[in-house]
Amino acid sequence: MKEVMQDLAKLPASPWWSFLTTLAGAVIGAVVAGLIAYYIAKKNENARQKILIISVWMKLQQMLENSLALHKHLKNCLSDSQTQLSTEKIYPKITSFAVKNLNIKIAPSELSALANDDDIESIEKILSLGRFYNFLITTFRESMIKKERLTHDLQGKIDGNSVLVPMHESGNEMNIIPIMELESQIRYIIKEAPETYMETRNLMVKLESRFQRYAKSIKFDSSKFPQIDDLNQSE
Which of 86, 76, 74 is nearest to 197 (CA)? Predict the structure, then answer.
């Protein structure tokens, strides 16, 4: 034991001791630096995922608000003619309305948090619902443009199930707008607007707890966005 202690006492003066302590310091320093870098990177990634999740949630909520507003608007336009919907042309009763951020785009890159959770079903649902919502809004816009041309101050001529509308005040060029196509679009929108609202609502209810893992402030307001049946009964 005495000899061992003597050998240990000689280590600080050994060149190998200096090399080993330098190497150990470098290794420890690298490990600490690596841990710090990992912590910062993870913190930044968590912050990025939080921002993306909040962005997606806000877009879904905007889709929900707009589809509900569209449903209410169409219902109000037809409030005095509900019993004649099966036979009466309804496109003349529908008016345009303005809401903010009508078209909403959700990029696949915004759903990276769900991809990390291997939640492919939710990703597909969000993207497909977003595409259909934009299609519905675009169809409504186009139908209002067609209706505006049908009801323009310029004189139009009835030709069967179409209206010939002058494209210029001179009346030399005529544009054919099929009435039945417009009527069909309007009826399609009336049917799909509440369904789009409910699909978006159900999706947000499903995703609420999952999104809260990234942003605790996220909360679905069921009193503001009730079931469509409850909404219809209250009106």
Answer: 74
28 belongs to a structural domain: no
Is residue 65 in some structural domain? yes
How buried is residue 193: exposed, middle or buried, by Cβ count under 10 Å (0-12/13-18/19+)?
A: buried
Dihedral angle at the C-alpha atoms of 30, 36, 40, 42, nearest 10 degrees?
80
Give a yes or no: residue 120 inside a domain: yes
Q: Is residue 32 one of the residues assigned to a domain?
A: no
The tally of domains found in the chain comes to: 1
Picking from 121, 110, 83, 100, the residue whose alpha carbon sits closest to that of residue 203 is: 121
Instruction: Say whether pLDDT at 172 is over 50.
Output: no
> What type of residue sits at position 19?
F
For residue 121, the surrounding DSSP H or E stretch is helix 120-150
pLDDT at 223 over 60: yes
Taking Cα atoms as reference points, which of 111, 142, 141 lies closest to residue 127?
A: 111
> What range defines the domain where residue 211 resides?
55-225
pLDDT at 191 over 70: yes
Residue 73 pLDDT more than 60? Answer: yes
Residue 19, helix vs strand vs coil: helix
- CA dist list (Å): 82 to 75, 93, 101, 144: 9, 11, 30, 21
